[in-house]
Specification:
Length: 353
């Protein structure tokens, strides 16, 4: 039999086992809060460091912005920009160059324009270029001229070698390449006395633009002292015209013709109606201008038309248009009654055909 002592020892072992197990579990449960507290401290330190860095960055950017705003004006004027770039002197030079260019245009010269300085060694200098306006239905008139005052064939070529070029001036048909154009081309191949304006449409209402294109084309093709416009209902005293122009050699800014004025027709549908009538004031009177039958421009005036043709205002009639272009220039008006083709004077250069 089990003794009392052994029974008591076994009972003591049973009573000591549970306290040992509960003590170890209590120790384990006490470590968790410490770990969590440590991790919380680390997270707080990380967040605090980032906030401090952002605050420093904002302070630096704010300082830089304040410095830049105090040193540079918020809105820069043109003067400020020129001053900062050091371009005031350049600006003055540009203004001076623009003034020189305007003056050159008004006198009929332009640097870089190939008509402004013609090389006399490469291009013959003529006394005059005479352009006789003609139309598609005027072949009979042209043949009459060729048999009277206007040389033809070799005589026309020799006259040009002596200093006077004469050409019939005509544009192109509204229907390019039609029988009208082909007939002019065939006639020109035989006579070689046409100046064909490829960019001009031949029509009565297009006469003002024909004047611009004629003078531009003539200046481009020949270097002459004078450029003459003649209508195809005029007979010329060619020798008398040449003598008159010889006496004017070397003159600049001459606008020669039979000077006239007249009433502006403001009623639509009437002959000589002027769509721009309101520009001529309450008196409705045209300014002084050379008659369209025959007028003469010196070299620099013809060059002025060539250079500025794109911006020149045209009116209903070519003589009015040319007269308006001359008004803005320092042109010398020469009113010579020998150029009045309808006058009764005996010594005159032209007469109605």
């Amino acid at each position: 039999m089990e003794t009392l002592a052994s029974a008591m020892r076994r009972e003591n072992r049973r009573s000591k086992a549970p306290p040992s197990s509960s003590a170890s579990s209590a120790l384990a449960s006490g470590r968790v809060p410490l770990v969590m507290a440590f991790l919380s401290c680390l997270a707080w330190l990380y967040v605090a460091g980032r906030l401090w860095q952002d605050a420093q960055t904002r302070a630096i950017l704010s300082g830089l912005l304040e410095k830049s705003s105090t040193s540079v004006p918020k809105v820069l004027s043109v003067e400020d920009k020129l001053r900062n770039l050091g371009c005031k002197a350049i600006g003055r030079k540009i203004v001076e160059a623009e003034m020189d260019l305007t003056k050159a245009k008004s006198e009929g010269y332009l640097w870089g324009n190939r008509t402004a300085a013609v090389d006399s060694d490469k291009k013959q200098q003529l006394l005059a270029v005479i352009g006789v306006y003609t139309g598609f239905g005027s072949r009979l008139k042209r043949n009459v001229f060729r048999g009277s005052w206007m040389p033809r064939g070799d005589a026309l070529k020799k006259l040009e070698e002596k200093g006077v070029a004469i050409r019939f001036v005509i544009g192109r048909s509204a229907n390019r390449g039609d029988s009208l154009d082909r007939n002019i081309d065939d006639e020109n191949r035989q006579t070689k006395d046409f100046l064909i304006l490829e960019s001009h449409e031949e029509a009565a209402e297009e006469l003002p633009s024909k004047a611009k294109i004629f003078f531009s084309a003539a200046v481009e093709a020949w270097d002459a002292e004078f450029y003459v416009k003649v209508e195809d209902n005029i007979n010329l005293d060619l020798a008398g015209l040449i003598e008159m122009l010889e006496g004017r050699r070397g003159s600049q800014g001459l606008y020669m013709g039979c000077m006239k004025s007249g009433m502006v027709i403001s009623e639509e549908g009437q002959q000589w109606y002027e769509p721009e009538w309101w520009k001529f004031g309450d008196s409705k009177t045209y300014f002084r201008h050379a008659s369209g039958s025959l007028f003469i421009l010196s070299k620099n005036l013809a060059r002025y038309i060539n250079i500025n043709s794109a911006s020149l205002q045209s009116y209903a009639h070519d003589d009015i248009s040319v007269g308006s272009w001359m008004m803005g220039l320092n042109a010398t008006y020469v009113d010579d009654d020998r150029l009045c083709c309808s006058s009764s004077r005996q010594e005159k250069i032209c007469s109605n055909a």
